[in-house]
Design goal:
The chain is mostly beta strands. The chain is 9% helix and 34% strand. It has a 16-stranded mixed sheet that branches. Strands 1, 2, 3, 4, 5 and 6 form a 6-stranded mixed sheet that branches. A 4-stranded antiparallel sheet has the order 11-10-13-14, with no helix packed on it. Strand 48 and strand 49 form a beta hairpin.
């Protein structure tokens, strides 16, 4: 296995080896197999008839051994430092810090806490095992004497007459070990010295009390039992030299000491008797790259070259496998000589045990979780044991679902690796039985919410001395007294109730729930009366504000009629017909379905406190009351739309028929688009309360108005109120009308009401003309403009001080009316700026026959009479209008 040379020359090397300079470390070499051959030969000499053969089949398969709970074993260590007599920390006389560093490595590696374990390739990660061995430096030497340096025996080879290093194995076995070993029943003996033949270390196998495959019956003599390590391969500080400077040589050799074989079985594709370590051709040196596949690899993952029992460099060693752990655990569990007895060694500790406490999370109920807690010093290991074979190495283990069998005493042992005596403490877990789960029954599983009849809920398996508490999970109807086995509930909707049962003196409870379902009224028309309020016409019961109702399609019986009174319903799904001739259809939820609503009278009203949705269709009178936002699809109102508490969100344009009216408030209004078409003439037309008022339309016309609420025009400071109007006359745009636009106070967008002016856009809001304002009615929340020349386009209200994006400045001047009247000529002027106008009339000879200033006009379009022009004689004239630097000319004729 180890490239070491033939056994016979080694056996003949019985004398000391001459001193020599240590060569640089070569590939890792472990001489455990050679040492075992030597021990077996010595045993055969001392014990006639002794058989050296190794078992080929273990006493128990490892899969069976894995079922037994592992134990954390603590072993005392003494390190015999064979030096040349140098000062402590110099040369071969290693420092105490280097010894402690080596102990730290052992306790990391054997508890799977080594940092480089995270670098094990993913396919091998599941193999990483906590071997559950920990090592402490012996606190006392032979005879109980206190050690000045715990776990360290400094041996000057000169004082004992040893030859100078490096040492051959035969000399070590025959001379050094017998002269320096401490009782192997109390110490794990570790010798550190210079070694010959490039050996890094070796160990003596244990006696095979556990019956493990791959081991002989006996391991060797007592006075040679232990581990030998090369000085420069010991620890991870001081004299440790790369690539064997991470303390893994002692980790490797103690594996042999506890019964492990090399991973390649010390033969080409040999057997190490650990099924979870894959076969490999031979030892791996250095630090191979994953995957390292050899000729006997059985998977693409190749060799487990990071195993502590391979030959890789220290930095590349990272794990014991699960089966290797089980072999080492089996050695201690079997009572193996010079192994199991170490657990009770007086060298383990001195002084008082560690201060340790144990507690539980308190009395628990069966089925709930419990937590065990322990205290101990930093870095301590915890080993719990308890009822039903419970074991754990966590400091605070959790029992996720307790049973009565888990009640009892739990004991924890707390250990450290510094040599202090382990501490122990116990705690008692109390597990109380939970009351039986209540079985609940209701006097009826369904009910009619409008019937006013109570339901009885009761427990059918009452508990003697039980304590009862009822609660509502969802719904309503719970009475004031809820601590009796039976209660009467009066729900108005489908409800679920929970009963919790406890026992006096115990915190344990159980609970169960029961549900009752409110019937959904479905119209049947079975009574033949068609009356909404006749219970015989409904399957279930007459609807109420807390119940949904369905009117199905395809019935041969009469559909419902409401002629008076208030028909309340939560959500109404109407697929069949419904006639509303009087009274009120009061909706507390949504109104859906495609059945015909024949509304010849009465009111459809929303009354719910929150959001509701109304179906599309035609309504005669629609009242939007309640709270929240109500939503409606494409709909037409033929008589009255009254907003009285809620906001009505129109998904698409809501239409007011020519005779319909709209009533709104600042808190209750139509959000979105509402439209109507009305005939406008000389008299005032207010478009059913839509917010537009026209007066003085000289030529009657049909005018369509669509109002959009909730959206302003423009951006930044140039922003309009949060509503605008699209006005579309059927014929030519009427001239000279008075237009008034209304607004709700909340729509001002922080604009000063005193600055509002009418703005018109003919390109869907891209650019605007300020048309000015003749009157501002703050009380009536409206702004009007006289002499509006053209209605067609989009209109809104904005501040003249921060106008909307302006259109190009233009003039459009014409004689109006034509021919001249007895009073003379009037002109219509459109201007982008306010200010005075100068007007001149010239005859065909170019003589100025009329020249005067006209009073200032407002922004927009104005109709301006030319006072005194009635005295002009018939004929052709040239009209010139000036405003500042702007001039417009027009030919006019008086016949």
């Amino acid at each position: 296995m180890v490239k070491f040379g033939a056994l016979l020359p080694w056996l003949l090397a019985l004398g000391p080896v001459a001193a020599q300079t240590l060569p640089p470390a070569g590939p890792r070499t472990c001489a455990t197999q050679q040492a075992d051959s030597y021990q077996q030969a010595q045993l055969q000499k001392r014990r006639p008839g002794y058989r050296t053969e190794k078992l080929t089949v273990g006493r128990l398969p490892l899969s069976t051994q894995r079922t037994a709970a592992a134990t954390t074993y603590t072993l005392p260590v003494v390190v015999h430092i064979i030096s040349d007599g140098e000062a402590v920390g110099v040369g071969s006389n290693l420092s105490q810090a280097q010894v402690q560093a080596q102990l730290d490595v052992l306790n990391e590696d054997y508890r799977n806490r080594n940092a480089n374990g995270a670098g094990v390739p993913a396919p091998f990660q599941p193999l990483r095992a906590d071997a559950q061995f920990q090592f402490v430096l012996a606190q006392r030497g032979p005879g109980g004497r206190a050690l000045a340096e715990p776990g360290i025996d400094r041996v000057s080879r000169r004082a004992l007459g040893f030859d100078a290093p490096p040492y051959a194995q035969a000399y070590i076995e025959s001379t050094i070990k017998p002269a320096t070993d401490w009782d192997p029943d109390q110490y794990v003996n570790v010798w550190v010295m210079g070694l010959s033949n490039n050996i890094l270390g070796y160990a003596q196998y244990p006696d095979n009390t556990a019956g493990l495959a791959g081991l002989s019956a006996l391991g060797g003599a007592a006075n040679t039992d232990g581990v030998v390590v090369l000085t420069s391969a010991f620890g991870r500080a001081g004299s440790a030299a790369a690539p064997y400077d991470q303390g893994r040589t002692l980790t490797h050799e103690l594996g042999h000491f506890l019964g492990l074989r090399h991973t390649w079985g010390d033969a080409n594709c040999g057997d190490d008797y650990c099924p979870d370590t894959p076969p490999q051709l031979g030892p791996n040196y250095g630090c191979p790259t994953f995957p390292h596949v050899t000729t006997c690899s059985i998977s693409p993952n190749g060799d487990l070259f990071q195993d502590f029992l391979d030959y890789a460099n220290d930095a590349c060693m990272a794990l014991f496998s699960l089966d290797q752990k089980n072999r080492m655990q089996a050695v201690l569990a079997a009572g193996t000589p010079r192994r199991t007895v170490l657990l009770t060694s007086p060298a383990l500790c001195t002084g008082a045990p560690l201060a340790t406490t144990a507690a539980t999370s308190g009395p628990v109920c069966a089925g709930s979780s419990a937590t065990l807690t322990a205290t101990g010093p930093a870095g301590a290991s915890y080993d719990w044991s308890g009822p039903n074979g419970f074991v754990s190495t966590l400091q605070n283990p959790v029992l996720p679902a307790t049973t009565l069998a888990m009640a009892g005493t739990y004991t924890v042992q707390v250990s450290v690796t510094t040599g202090a005596c382990p501490g122990a403490a116990s705690t008692v877990l109390v597990v109380s039985p939970a009351p039986p789960t209540p079985v609940l029954a209701a006097s009826a599983a369904t009910f009619c919410p409008s019937g006013g009849v109570g339901l009885t809920l009761s427990v059918t398996n009452p508990l003697v001395g039980g304590q009862y508490t009822w609660a509502v999970v969802s719904g309503d109807g719970l009475p004031a007294v809820v601590t009796t086995p039976s209660i009467s509930v009066s729900p108005t909707q489908s409800s679920t109730y929970q009963l919790t049962v406890g026992v006096a003196g115990s915190a344990c409870t159980t609970a169960a729930t029961i549900s009752v379902r409110a019937l959904t009224p479905v119209w049947s028309g079975a009574a033949g009366t068609g009356s909404w309020f006749d219970a015989a016409n409904w399957q279930g019961c007459v609807p109420s504000r807390t119940t949904d109702a369905v009117i199905p399609a395809g019935l041969a019986t009469p559909y419902p009629t409401i002629s008076g009174g208030t028909a309340e319903v939560r959500t109404l799904t109407q697929q069949g017909g419904l006639t509303l001739a009087g009274g009120e259809l009061a909706l507390y939820g949504d109104y859906a379905g495609t059945g015909l609503l024949a509304q010849t009278g009465g009111t459809v009203a929303t009354r719910g406190a929150g959001a509701q949705r109304l179906r599309p269709g035609t309504y005669q009178a629609l009242l939007v009351a309640g709270g929240g936002v109500k939503t409606i699809g494409p709909a037409t109102v033929t008589q009255a739309l009254i907003l009285a508490g809620a906001i009505l969100q129109a998904d698409s344009a809501l239409t007011l028929a020519p005779a319909a009216t709209l009533t709104e408030t600042d808190a209750s209004y139509v959000l979105g688009q509402v439209q109507t078409t009305r005939a406008a003439g000389p008299a005032t037309e207010n478009f059913g309360g839509l917010g537009v008022r026209l007066a003085g339309v000289t030529t009657p016309d049909s005018i369509h108005v669509r109002r959009t609420t909730g959206q302003g025009q423009g951006t930044g400071a140039g922003l309009s109120i949060s509503r605008y109007y699209d006005i579309a006359p059927a014929g030519n745009s009427p001239l000279g009308t008075t237009l008034a636009l209304a607004y709700l106070p909340h729509e001002l967008n922080s604009l000063p009401a005193a600055q509002l002016s009418l703005f018109q856009s003919t390109d869907d809001g891209a650019t605007w003309r300020d048309q000015g304002a003749t009157r501002r009615d703050a009380t009536g929340a409206a702004v009007s403009r006289d002499y509006v020349a053209g209605l067609a386009g989009r209109w809104t209200l904005a501040s003249a001080a921060t106008p909307l994006p302006p259109a190009a400045v233009t003039y459009a001047i014409q004689a109006f009316p034509v021919p001249f009247t007895a009073e003379g000529l009037s002109i219509q002027v459109t201007t982008a700026t306010a200010g005075p106008l100068d007007v001149q009339l010239y005859d065909v000879l170019g003589r100025a026959i009329y020249n005067r200033a006209v009073a200032s006009v407002e922004v927009g379009t104005s109709l301006v009479p030319l006072l005194g022009s009635g005295q002009l004689q018939p004929g052709k004239y040239i009209l010139v209008v000036r405003q500042g630097a702007q001039t417009a000319k027009l030919n006019v004729v008086r016949e």
